[in-house]
Design brief:
heterodimer, A: 108 residues, mainly beta, six-stranded mixed beta sheet, five-stranded antiparallel beta sheet, globular, B: 113 residues, seven-stranded mixed beta sheet, four-stranded antiparallel beta sheet, 53% strand
Chain lengths: 108, 113
């Protein structure tokens, strides 16, 4: 079963716009990770945020974590066509539990 | 460092057969985890091996098994294949320590006919 849900399930934006997706989870966590998957290939790790962190940046990515609401958000700024992919949040240590993912389409 | 590698990349089997998938982790990583991805169930954890021992197990039937060798390479086996076993099987490796990132391989796409 999924740990949580991601919202929205799908997102379509123009190149240059920002993309925001949200993830909710059910149990307390030590950290939360975001992954990207292109066309049914392997998962690429994007960012890990620990439970005592509220915000983290990596390049064009910004992740927030609100443990009181059991939710996290991923913001991709100035999106590019190459950002077209599915994005997943995951919780757990060596046994990851994934959300359902958000499919992002960036139109050139 | 070379990334996680999985072989084969694609596989077609028929119902009732068995299949073995292989995963080579990043050099120095001692933990290998396996996941199944299907359109209906999404990404689901199968099991994790650390230093040749199964450390965590997901909710899959006993037809799904795995092992890890002394060089940390891992194999998973599915016996008596069913149509519903068609999926992308992903392997991930990490150091095995707390709060460490898992790095995924490209996956093996299995089609059961």
């Amino acid at each position: 079963s999924q740990q949580g849900e991601e919202d929205p399930q799908a997102l379509s934006i123009q190149e240059g716009e920002n993309a925001t997706m949200n993830c909710s989870y059910k149990t307390s966590i030590n950290n939360l990770q975001w992954y990207r998957q292109n066309s049914g290939r392997g998962l690429v790790h994007l960012i890990l945020i620990r439970s005592n962190e509220r915000e983290k940046h990596s390049g064009r990515l910004r992740v927030t974590l609100d443990t009181s609401k059991k939710s996290s958000s991923l913001l991709i700024t100035a999106s590019r066509a190459a950002d077209t992919a599915s994005y997943f949040c995951a919780t757990g240590r060596n046994k990851l539990t994934f959300g359902g993912g958000t499919r992002v389409l960036v139109k050139p | 460092k070379a990334g996680v590698t999985q072989t084969p990349r694609y596989l077609i089997k028929t119902r009732g057969q068995q299949v073995t998938l292989s995963c080579s982790p990043i050099s120095g990583h001692r933990s290998v985890s396996w996941y199944q991805q299907t359109p209906g169930q999404g990404l689901q954890f199968l099991f994790e091996y650390f230093s040749e021992t199964q450390r965590n197990k997901g909710n899959f039937p006993g037809r799904f098994s795995g092992r890890q060798f002394s060089n940390s390479r891992s194999e998973m086996n599915v016996s008596t294949l069913e149509l519903g076993d068609s999926a992308l099987y992903l392997c991930a490796s990490s150091s095995g320590l707390e709060q460490e990132t898992q790095y995924f391989g490209p996956g093996t796409r299995l089609l059961v006919l």
